[in-house]
Design a protein that fits this description.
Blueprint (H helix, E strand, L loop, with lengths): L3 E7 L10 H15 L4 E6 L4 H13 L2 E7 L8 H8 L3 E5 L1 H4 L5 H11 L3 E3 L6 H17 L6 E6 L3 H12 L5 E6 L4 H11 L2 H4 L4 E4 L1 H6 L7 H13 L8 H13 L6 E7 L12
Length: 285
Amino acid sequence: MEGRDIWCKRDDLIHPVISGNKWRKLKATAYWLVKENIPALASFGGAYSNHLHALAYVCKVLNIQFHAVVRAHPQSPLTPTLSDIKNWGSRIHFVSRDEYRLRNDEAYIEQLKQELQVDYVIPEGGSNEACIHGVEDIIEELNKQHTQVFDYILAPVASGGTLAGLISGVRKAKLATQVLGIAVLKGKAYLTDSVESLLPNTDASYHNWEIFYEASVVCGGYAKLSKELEAFGEQFSKTHFTLDRVYNTKSFFALKMLLQQARFRNKKILILQTGGLQGNRKTAL
């Protein structure tokens, strides 16, 4: 590690259930739900969705009826994630892949509100305008915890909310830090567009960020692990702390790749452990 200064922010330690970026992305929305006295809402995710799991717990605590729209076959056995969601009183609605592709379509969202009798629908992954403010808190916390400024902040990116919040937070703090998103799924245009759509107009053209795709290309797309990536995750978890199989294993592996490419020589680097271990679980809580 000569010539490099590497730090990790352990956001996975925020809460035993609502860990990492899921709490940060839902925090502002949770306050709004209470303020507006929202009785019922819905959101989207897969059978191991960290977002659905965290949101279902929030709704349980706030006594809000939650409808989880899940991309899975209705006859499939419940995963530990979905078992928790069901046990917390949420209602699960299984939809086909074709229907799930409509999750960002305005007409479909309005139809879903009518069918489920809900007042509000949170986007997949919790990535909406409100989530930006919660993620921005990371930069404020770092400024309080450290005197030095990091040259790079790394974080996994899928729905775009966490990366957009980091970009916005760095800009507001007027830092020279570069934000590097580690793609955990394939599709360059999709990820870039997702992040830009969440940024305020003043931030969309702010050139303090990019997305690194090589790890996803080498190791497989979303929720896929090559043998090399799986071995890396297992070894890292033994010597340091547990990484989830979907997001952080890939982002930490990408950091290793970038270090081998000598990209970060004489740089101060922070990598964000965003939490969310649903993809690792074998049993319900």
